[in-house]
User: Fold this.
Amino acid sequence: MGDRSADIVILTYKPDDRFIRLSYMLQKQSIKPGRIIVINTEEKYFNMPRDLREGLPGLEVHHISSKEFNHGATRNKGAGYSDSEFLIFMTQDAVPEDEHLLEELQRPMEDSKVAVSYARQLPSGEAGEIERFNRLFNYPDRDILKTKEDIKKLGIKALFCSDVCACYRRSVFDSLGGFVYTDFNEDMIFAYHALMAGYGIYYASRGKVIHSHEYSLMQQFKRNIVLGRSQRRHPEVFGGLVSEGEGKKLVKGCISYLLKKRKPWLIPVFVAHCAARYAGFLIGKHFDHHGE
Assistant:
């Protein structure tokens, strides 16, 4: 891979203390980052301590308006400022768990057939039991290499890849046209095209970031409307894939987990969240035509 590390593209909007912690942790990495390209939405909300800026010599900040933001296009914009063969996309709330994140994300790239490696997401200290299980379910403690052959066996799980923190091989990224213009699922859509082109998607479990959310019922509902809508808009990717099997595994696993933790009163809360997610997904996939 040579001596040069990956460039990092971070998307920010009203960044808080998690972005500050993320930035300090980038200073401590065993492999120093190349350029750190921040694409910030709305300049008036961006503030970064001077000592932190000085501690990141490769830092550059580019501001856009809210009207310009798009999950796929904004990441492409960030990639356009880099000429590195490896790009690590991050969100402002993904805090490296230790000093080996960049090292572990770039390690799978020694295999030229790996197009993307993505990090393990750990729950924050404030996360509740349901969110802790969600992180454990989606981000186990073992590495996984997914190829085109796994689509039949894993279904939609074969495409799972999160741009909260993921490393992309630039030559493949460019050859596949980067991310599509979309408001959700840009990472999974790219993963599908990479798999179909014969490349692998690698889950690097030893590359870890602290990242979790406590969504309300309404937030879950609205989020899944967008999820369902994005799947409907890309039938070439999601048309032949089902996600219900993964949903059933999640429900059974979480109920068992909550019983083992001796917190059965959380089961109705979990079921309510599942209902909100599923209802939002169905509306988005079959009935919501916002912006079309």
